[in-house]
Amino acid sequence: MKPRSLFAAGLALVLAGFAPAAVCRAQNEGGDPAEILKLIQPDLQAGKVDDAIEKVEKFTKDNPKNVPALFILTALTQQTAQQVSQADRTKSIPVYLKSAEAARKLRALEKDLNPNQAKMVATALYNGACSLALDKKADEAMKMLAESIDAGFDEQKTFDTDNEIDSLRERADFKKLADSMKSKKAEAEAKSAEKAIAEVPKLFKEHKAFPFSFSLPDLDDKKVSLDDYKGKVVIVDIWGTWCPPCRMEIPHFVDLHKKYKDKGLEIVGINYEDGAPDEVKKVIKDFLAENKVPYTCVIGDEKTQNQVPDFEGYPTTLFLDRTGKVRLKVVGYHEKPVLEAIIKTLLDEKAE
After folding, report:
1. CA 273 to CA 300: how far, in whole Å?
2. CATH class of domain segment(s) 207-351
3. 0.70 exceeded by the pTM?
4. Collapsed DSSP state (helix, strand, coil) of residue 319
């Protein structure tokens, strides 16, 4: 399945994840929100993302309170802005701002966003703030930056090192905002860790086991097999560089690999990309180098993906114990404390 069509499938999951009340409100404002996907899916599958955005924009103009439509507009424009930015950051500014405006409207309408949706909204607002800063609109940038943090943007490393907001750093309101962000992040991480630890046993209990293995080429065409990791706790991350939630989760895996590798943890990324083989390898290699990813990534195939029951979308993460058994499957972006609680549970089974 092509990444763009899988992106459409991911949007279907987004629609399904909205609270029933939000869907009812959306329906009252312009019909069944699932019709939006039906409207744009042919364009997404054909790679005509700009055409899909134009259609969703028209839909949201006619139905300004349709929550799922606003989220889809946020996601599509965010994806497009990222691609444009790779070639010309200046040209991506209006696209990022369009995404941020959709996110702002969405946030004003709907308070019941799930974690993946909230993450997308916060990221869209943050990227909008960066774009305003680059466009020398400092006051507007500060306002949107504060909105992004209030919405849950908590990428401290990005916030501390991003040169796109360097022009704001000497402002007194920026320094105050930075202190507030650190405080909120510490508090949120503590609560998230506590909640994750409490929920992990339930996740393991509800998981249905299934067989899984792979033998796939790495980026140098060397075969890598699950058998290479016997006796290790293994995370298999099924992802793509084109997938925003996947990209947001990678720093967590990098940190966890560094922290737990010596205790028996291994991570393997199985990549699904669209393009010619050489182009795909370059895209992945560039991403791994830029993000200092230390673990192995291999090129996925349909056979491997089909081993995952009811495959829903990206990222899909499998957690295997030291015997090679899949003990847990999770779909979508997850906060670092959740991932860490799962890993620690499996690593602690060593003595059993």
Report:
1. 9
2. alpha beta
3. no
4. strand
Which ranges constitute the DSSP H helices of the chain?
Answer: 3-17, 20-28, 34-45, 49-62, 67-87, 89-109, 115-134, 138-150, 156-161, 172-206, 244-260, 277-290, 302-305, 336-347
SS3 331: strand
Q: What is the pLDDT of residues 15-60, one digit of tens each?
A: 444 444 444 444 445 445 567 778 888 888 888 889 999 999 999 9
Q: Where are the alpha helices (DSSP H) in 110-171?
A: 115-134, 138-150, 156-161
Residue range(s) of every CATH 1.25.40 domain in the chain = 3-191
**Dihedral pair phi/psi, residue 144, rounded to 5°:** -75, -30
C-beta neighbour count of 44 within 10 angstroms:
22
Q: Which two tokens stand for residue 219?
A: 């980026």
CATH 1.25.40 fits 3-191, yes or no: yes
- Identify the helix (H) or strand (E) that includes residue 327: strand 326-331
Q: Tokens 């706790």, residue?
A: 233
What does DSSP assign to residue 329?
E
Residue 92 has a CB neighbour count (10 Å cut-off) of 21
Domain with CATH 3.40.30.10 in the chain: 207-351
